[in-house]
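Example 3.2
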Amino acid sequence: MIRRFQFQTPIKTLPSLHHRLTTTTAAAVSPPPTTTPTPPPPVNPSHLLRVSTILYQQQHSPESRLHTSLSHCNFHLTHEFFLQICNKFPYSWKPIYKFHIFSQTQHFNHTSTTLNKMLDIIGKSRNIDLLWDFVQETGNRTLVTDKTYIIVVKTLASARELKKCVDFFHVMNGFGYGYDLGTLNKVVESLCGCKLVEEAKYIVQKLKGVVKPDGFTYKFLISGFCDVGDLVEGSKMWNLMVDEGFVVGIDVVEKMMDTLFKTNRFDEAMRLFQSVRVDRVDELGISSCRLVIKWMCKKDKLGQARVVFDEMRERGIEADCMTLGSLIYGFLSKARVREAYEIAEAIDNPDISVYHGLIKGLLRLKKANEATNVFREMIRRGCEPTMHTYVMLLQGHLGKRGRKGDDPLINFDTIFVGGLVKAGKSLEATKYVERVMNRGLEVPRFDYNRFLHYYSNEEGVVMFDVMSKKLREVGLFDLGDIFERYGQKMATRDKRRER
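Structure, written as tokens:
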């Protein structure tokens, strides 16, 4: 039994419906407008290769020698050429910095794009001292943009240079850029997207005296704490947001509910949903209902899911395919097959979520052959399966550990070990065989994702074709169709991306 989690700081009641407040942002000093230049000529690939080779081979040489070698190349230095040189060294600061020094002897004028590219490379190489010096140079050139803020602060936050993160805003203010709330929000959003939410919270708190956070700032922080699974800190940000007079948006409510569901706190998530139904029912849309219905069906609470679904229909909200797919799975999990098919047949243009609901539910009922018929039907109606579709079907037919048969042609231990050897994973193959031979040890779960990935090439097309014929010879027609279809779609890596 899972012990119920208690928030140290309870989430306060949602306020009544009104528009979210926003704070007027301070105007930032923008760089002077520049005229649009004529399109530069295309970069000469031979010049690009020669310059990048010199930079790599002579990056530790004296500057005079390096500059002489570069001058003899007779290349045309443009902004596009500079950016392509940077792309050659995405994680090495020295060649790029040396090339930057050389460019200053060629009357080359940087733009915000080229400087941001350099800052990004210096940041990825974790050269904090050079990054800080280059920030000063960028500020002096008045070429700082929001992208500059994001690159610099993300690098400093990743290196736990929190004081410098705050100092960076003060330094930019000294260069005349001011404390802009919009820029701060972009930085916070970027940090939270990289799971650096603690660092984002620190920056917001330290800058609170000069930049007052608004509803969007708290929204990004709450979402960030939910992404890292820290619901206690997320609820603190929630309460702070309410205390300062901002309305918690429905998207933030959905994020909190989803995190509560994922962490097995079903009761807390439902209490939050009920509070929204009482105070802000008009704001509940299809996304909120879909989220609740999906998790109710996963938890085998079909009755509650039907209540939410009926209420949604009474309010005039049309159900989408993802919602109906969740309901279909919910009915099948209760062995109510006829009702599930009635919902599916009533959909005019079903997408893959509907078919996945059918396949997953039928496999739960141990009806692998019927699930394969659904697979054939979705292909016939032009809905392309994904990797998840194939993995579900293979697990349904073969079990989570793979099929054990007397015939070596259809014994998946043999096929899996052969795939590992062909992929150059002989050590993994040896370990797998040792565990299979020693029945006292637990045989590891068959990794269908890895199996399909290793054969997703031109050689795999032939293998899957031969394999499907052999499976049909022993009467496994469903498996033969599945592997034949997968082989047709996985001829090259480009086709795999189209899937």
